[in-house]
Amino acid sequence: MKKYSVTVLLLVLLALLPAGCSQGTEAPGGDETGNGGAKSFTVGIVQIAEHPALDASREGFLAGLAEAGYVEGENLTVQYHSAQGDQSIALTIAQNLVNDQVDLILGIATPAAQAAATAAEGSGIPVLFTATTDPVAAELVKDWDVPGVNVTGTSDMNPVEDQLGLIQKILPGVEAIGVIYNAGEANSVVQVEIVRAKVKQMGLALEETTVSNTSEVLQAAQSLAGKVQAIYVPTDNTAVQALASILQVAEENGILVVAGEGDSVHSGAVATVGINYFTLGFETGKMAAQILEGADPAAMPVVKGMDLGVSYTVNLAAAARMGVEIPEDILAEAEIVEE
């Protein structure tokens, strides 16, 4: 009789065991929360510097994750760090995130993405990038369509040719264009190569001036005064961080400033036609959610921001300060910024 009772008890326990074990099961990299199998993740963000376009990318990224069900403070922990414009700091930040064994790292801007990819190599931690112009030239991925490595993301390659054409629309008599950039930024080098070809095609002169840090931007802008009628500011992190210095010189000398992205127009450049960085970050957040759910970054195509749509942005107050007039056909399509 005792033997029969023990056998029945064992059968009951075995029947209950699968149900008990199924609760709290976690996906690779996730943390078991104990709330019926739900998982939480930790995402590390390294941003090369703080300025409006990159900040908008980060905000969009978190919004994209939230739409996919990953909400900071609920099932998502975010470790955010700014490298303050220093790539060596970015590499240290990224290495610390790897040491913390986060589930995914986002690099915002090319130098930060390069730091994240270097630190995470061989760790198994997936890396995403956003606000990166040419990920192939930056050696982040092998191919736009099939990255082939544990890295993918979104590109902020802007319609540089259209932006330079915008200068000619606003200033039909322009003869020379200046460009300020950091030659140490791979994303900027790619853009300036496009600038050279387009300006030559337009039959205009090009004045290039390079900087290595923000403290050199004012002098670089001053060197263009009297030589150019317009300055083009690409999505160069160094130049954009010190945009106020460029604007100061432009306003003092009546030089048109056209920027590579809309947030610089909100900050005082005259105009641009370009992508929306919040939208770019949002798309990156959606990609992050897919990776956290098991998608392979190596097989996820890089998304181009221009494919998500472009639009005009015009700052009328800045145009008045620089003594230029915006054509009506541009105004009819543009987001108008009134400071």
In short:
With 339 residues, this protein is of the alpha/beta class.
Description:
This protein is an alpha/beta fold. The strands form three sheets. Strands 1, 2, 3, 4, 5, 6 and 12 form a seven-stranded mixed sheet that branches. It has two domains: 33-156 and 276-308, Response regulator (Rossmann fold), CATH 3.40.50.2300; 160-274 and 310-337, Response regulator (Rossmann fold, 3-Layer(aba) Sandwich). Helix 2 crosses helix 11. 43% of the residues lie in helices and 20% in strands. The chain contains 13 helices and 14 strands. It has helices at 2-22, 52-67, 87-99, 110-120, 160-170, 186-202, 217-224, 237-241, 243-253, 262-266, 277-292, 316-322, 328-333; strands at 31-32, 39-47, 76-82, 104-108, 127-132, 151-155, 176-181, 205-210, 230-233, 256-259, 271-274, 303-304, 311-315, 335-337.
Please write out the topology.
Elements: H1 2-22, E1 31-32, E2 39-47, H2 52-67, E3 76-82, H3 87-99, E4 104-108, H4 110-120, E5 127-132, E6 151-155, H5 160-170, E7 176-181, H6 186-202, E8 205-210, H7 217-224, E9 230-233, H8 237-241, H9 243-253, E10 256-259, H10 262-266, E11 271-274, H11 277-292, E12 303-304, E13 311-315, H12 316-322, H13 328-333, E14 335-337
Parallel strand pairs: 2-3, 2-4, 4-5, 5-6, 6-12, 7-8, 7-9, 9-10, 13-14
Antiparallel strand pairs: 1-2, 11-13
Helix pairs in contact: 2-11, 3-4, 7-9
